[in-house]
Amino acid sequence: MDFPHIKREKEAVRVRTRHILMSFAFIMLTIFLILIIASRTSEAGGINLSGQAAAGPDNALGDISIPGVTQTPEPTVRPTVYRPDIDVSSWEFILANSEHNIGTYAPEQTVSIEGTAQYFDSRAIDYLLAFIQGARDAGFTPYIMTAYINYSSQEYIFNGRASQIAWGGTYTYEEAVEIARTVTSYPGTSDHQTGLAVDITDRYYSSLSSADIDEDLLNWLAEHCAEYGFILRYPALKESVTGWNEPWHFRYVGTTAAEYIMERGLCLEEFLELYE
Ligand SMILES: [Zn+2]
User: Fold this and answer.
1) Does position 2 have pLDDT exceeding 60, yes or no?
2) CA 140, CA 144: separation in Å to the nearest integer?
3) pLDDT tens-digit profile of 137-161?
């Protein structure tokens, strides 16, 4: 028996299936073409990933990509941490602390600070004078308590302190020396022996304590020291590294290093470690 309506239906299903398959093939072909065009465009130079990766403080311009030319990325030496390009073996970076005893080191030449009995390394005196003047211009009356201390003076101060501690008889002299190390620098380990350190207060004090000194002055000094090439040598937050917390003690290192150190809240020890 012949069933023309079934035949017609079968034919219609076949035609529909063909349509669906052809549409699918067309869509796939379109996607394929789009992908090819997209990959060509990025190669032709719109986007250059290697150039972007190389851009940084040491390579400010990055790579310039030329349309149509595929660049082979050159290996770039990139330090993991950015650090200023300076020679830390220079005199400004001399480090004196309990682990780096500078022995009898003395600056080449020292000069009096504004005719006072306090001396400073002549190579950095102009920066110190500008720093002091800056504080005056801001309405403060900065006072230089202590600047350069030579080796023999430091030795004298230290031995005096140790003798004082041993005097009552509670401690042996050896024990007194160990105690003295925690309150005053051992000869050769004082930042003041570099000739680049200065204790700035608002007036004369017989012994220093941050509680007495005008807080506004200390804040101004910490905020502006880097502009004059100075750093806060013993920041409160770095006492575990340096052993000291002295908001009045500033140290010359030059403006480039000073700005880097103060912006990042480092101490001199941490800064110099970046160059080891
Ligand atoms: Zn000091």
Assistant:
1) no
2) 13
3) 999 999 999 999 999 999 999 999 9
CB 230 within 8 A of CB 125: no
Ligand 1 centroid, distance to 269 Cα (angstroms): 16
Catalytic residue of the set 246, 259, 263, 269? 246
CATH number at residue 195: 3.30.1380.10
First to last CA, the chain: 99
Model pTM score: 0.69
Could you tell me how far CA 122 lies from the centroid of its own chain?
26
Asked if residue 200 lies in contact with residue 142, where contact means CB atoms within 8 angstroms, the answer is: yes
Burial zone of 134 (CB within 10 Å; 0-12 exposed, 13-18 middle, 19+ buried) = middle
Catalytic status, residue 239: no
The closest alpha carbon to 93, from 258, 264, 265, 263, belongs to 258
Query: Domains in the chain: how many in total?
Result: 2
Residue labelled with tokens 């390009």: 85
- Please check whether residues 197 and 263 belong to one and the same domain: yes
107 CA to middle of ligand 1, Å? 17
pLDDT of residue 54: 37
Based on the fold, state whether residues 262 and 200 are members of the same structural domain.
yes
What does the block give as tokens for 3? 């069933």
Domain that holds residue 19: 4-43
- CB-based contact 155:67 (threshold 8 Å): no
Q: How many angstroms separate the alpha carbon of residue 246 from the centre of ligand 1?
A: 7
The Cα–Cα gap between 123 and 228 comes to 13
**CA 172–ligand 1 middle distance (angstroms):** 28
Q: What is the pLDDT of residues 147-205, one digit of tens each?
A: 999 999 999 999 999 999 999 889 999 999 999 998 899 999 999 999 999 999 999 99
